[in-house]
Amino acid sequence: SQQGEEDPQALSIQEGENATMNCSYKTSINNLQWYRQNSGRGLVHLILIRSNEREKHSGRLRVTLDTSKKSSSLLITASRAADTASYFCATDPPGGTSYGKLTFGQGTILTVHP
Amino acid sequence: NAGVMQNPRHLVRRRGQEARLRCSPMKGHSHVYWYRQLPEEGLKFMVYLQKENIIDESGMPKERFSAEFPKEGPSILRIQQVVRGDSAAYFCASSPTENTIYFGEGSWLTVV
User: Fold this and answer.
1) B7: distance to nearest CA of chain A, Å?
2) How far from the centroid of its chain's Cα atoms is residue B70's Cα?
3) Can you say how many angstroms the Cα of residue B52 is from the centroid of all Cα atoms in its chain?
């Protein structure tokens, strides 16, 4: 089973609307990160939230983390057509050494219509 | 400062051939990771290397797959005797320490 599972699998909205994607995970984590992937391209790091943080902002992005529910959400406000992409959450294991051994979810495909 | 460079971007191999994927980490980065992305799935960790050392290969298939990161030159992911199920995007990532990692653009392998 997936450590990270995104919900919904696909989201279609109009430009200017907000987009919310959710991620659930199963085991304890050190950090949770969100990435964006345009079709046929590599991953772009969006934001990292640590296990002792509850909310983080970066531009039009807002990420929340609820460790009691083992879930995170990514909110993109005032969406643009250029936000069309797949969005993945990724977790790294707890413990003293936190290296780039990330566990990714299946992703949410976001389509923003102009 | 160039990003993580992967080549080739696209590779077509016939069943039974070998595939070699190369990754040059960002300047100053000594940690390299390889991930595989099957069609319409998330990325799966394969291996973590530092110069001349394999640190964690828990995600590598037991047979036909190998990885190296020599003292000089790029990291290489090698797949011997490829099968159709190896068709995927292979991503390399690097980091300066053990924190945020930076992904390359990926190498898309198609086995025909």
Assistant:
1) 13
2) 14
3) 15
Task: For residue range A34-63, list pLDDT tens digits in order.
Answer: 999 999 898 999 999 999 999 999 999 999
Q: How far apart are CA B57 and CA A18, in angstroms?
A: 40
Contact criterion met (CB below 8 Å) for B90 and B34: yes
- Nearest residue of chain A to residue B104 (CA atoms): A42
- DSSP string for B31-75: EEEEEEE-TTS-EEEEEEEETTEEEE-TTS-SSSEEEE--SSS-E
The C-alpha atoms of residue B56 and residue B53 are separated, in whole angstroms, by 9
Question: Tokens standing for A28?
Answer: 């304890």
Closest by CA to A107, choosing from A92, A93, A91, A87, is A87
CA distance B101 to chain A (A): 6
**In this complex, which of A4, A48, A88 lies closest to B100 when CB atoms are compared?**
A48
Binned at pLDDT 50, 70 and 90, residue B41 comes out as confident
Q: Across-strand partners of B50?
A: B31, B53
Contact B107, B20 (CB under 8 A): no
CA dist., res. A85 & res. A87, Å (int): 6
